[in-house]
Amino acid sequence: MEPLRSLLFVPGNRERFLEKARSAPADALVPDLESGVPEPQKARARQMVRDALPAFAKAGKQVFVRVNQIGSAHLLADLNSVLSEHLTGVVLPQIASPDDIRHLDEMISSLEGGKRLPVGRIRIIPFIETALGVERAFEIATASSRVIAVAFGAEDFTADMGVSRSAEGTEFLFARNRVAVAARAAHKLAIDSPYVDISDAQGLERDVRLAMRLGFKGKFAIHPDQLAVLNRVFSPSPEEVREAKRILAAFERVDAETYGTGSLDGKMIDTAIALRAQKLLRDAEAVSRKDGLNASSKAKRR
């Protein structure tokens, strides 16, 4: 699975933003057909996003279009417009039930056949944004093999709870953590809600680091200036890579049958710690490949 450290929302009704997004250093682009597009502009936005997809693919971007929610009069038209060989998947908002995912899966399967796409090609990222959705997060994550990641939406969640969102985010910490745990239990990526104060660089750094510690593997962005922080924090640092290699080298010297544990710099090393080090090195390798592909695509565009 490719890294999804940074997913940039792009208004689907803003042609200039769609064009600029091609060069954004995001792991994935998320053209928005839902809340960012006024009702009278929905049809035009579909056409603009559909027309932009080939250029996004040529730029080497994963693309997940945020479509309108289950029950919306716009959903079928959204899917029919954007499903193509250039699309990675869709982001589905306001998910409260695994039945929503199964229904979307059926809709996509029907359209894939008509568009001569391999069945199962289009992926799904459900946005969990309600109390009921949080309670059913694991069921949602495992409702379809198309689901590759699960996203948490803080703004709508706090609205559903009837509370105000604070800078610290304590009012949704439990829900945020629960979605991350459910995603991990389902072997999916956990993607965090965007940080909405574009001018607060320090707050963004703190929030992204907290998300990383909670188990999230990526985060949505609402401005290109946020992408560098997301890509850096959700990537293993050179120091972490070196330490992981030292841990594995030390663990290899352990007599597993006799002791089962070893030590490095006075700290215990056991199987769990060694496995974590192996996972970090795999993540670092995946990020390196991703960044290499991004650099190659950028060079070709020059």
Describe the protein:
With 302 residues, this protein is an alpha/beta fold. It has two domains: 6-233, TIM Barrel, CATH 3.20.20.60; 238-301, no CATH class. The protein is 49% helix and 15% strand. The chain has twelve helices and ten strands. The chain has helices spanning 15-21, 42-58, 75-82, 98-114, 131-135, 137-141, 154-161, 173-185, 201-214, 227-233, 238-252, 271-301; strands at residues 6-11, 28-32, 62-66, 89-92, 123-128, 149-152, 189-192, 218-221, 262-264, 267-269. An eight-stranded parallel β-barrel has the order 1-2-3-4-5-6-7-8, surrounded by five helices. A two-stranded antiparallel sheet has the order 9-10. Strand 1, helix 1 and strand 2 (28-32) form a beta-alpha-beta unit. Helix 2 (42-58) packs parallel to helix 3 and helix 11 runs antiparallel to helix 12 (271-301). The longest helix is centred in the last third of the chain and has 31 residues, at 271-301.
